[in-house]
Amino acid sequence: MSHLRAVVFDLDDTLMPEMSAVEAAFHASCASAYPSDPILAASLVGRVQARARELWRSAPTHAYCRRVGISSWEGLWGEFGGRAGPSRLLRAWQPQYRGLAWRLALADMGAGDPELAAGLGRTFARAVRARLEPYPGAVAAVRAARGRWRVGLLTNGESSIQREKIAAAGFRDEFDAVLVSGDIDTGKPAAAPFRQILGQLGTRATDTVMVGNSLASDVLGAQRIGMRAVWYGHATADGVQARPDGIVSDLSAMQDSLERL
Q: Which domains does the chain have, with CATH numbers?
């Protein structure tokens, strides 16, 4: 690629699994409640996810969570350590949310046991943290890119949660610049996060490429401000109309894809 100076990576479901890891954590946790009945365990998964979504919509900071990209399942395991007002509100509300989500889900199953609910909440948080790891080849792909260009990370979410993921997956020292949407109160696909990471990298939109799994947030968001974008295409398009500048399905092929753009 001519005049390329920097590559910006997304985090969740690009460099490390999110949805598959969270699903596995839900199933492992609920199986501990019904170790001999996989049907009931699977039913509890559905109930706690539904109850969590329902309660999350009533969060005192729901609009903020939607804006920066904080999910209901992150509220069930993550720690909100930010100093901004919304993070403080979430931190105060979170114990009530976690406990109630599991208690209501168990009540739906006919098992209203507060101690079991509290234990499942702790089990789920441990199960998620045990799965905070990079995709095979992800660290190598970032290092290979850094050997040629400046490298940034741009991810939606609450700052302390995303930075915990970054550290746990082994990416703490791998980027020249890191920006979490919670740091600036605005998430992708808005233009502000892209412009902010460009400023941190000291590059222009025209000489920087975005790599991510979301056509809507990563590809279209980057292209709207003049960046090029590579879709890490293990996800479905979900009806989003976009024309990425490149598509890769294997991180080991990332370097070649960037060179060919």
A: 6-16+133-260 (3.40.50.1000), 19-129 (no CATH)
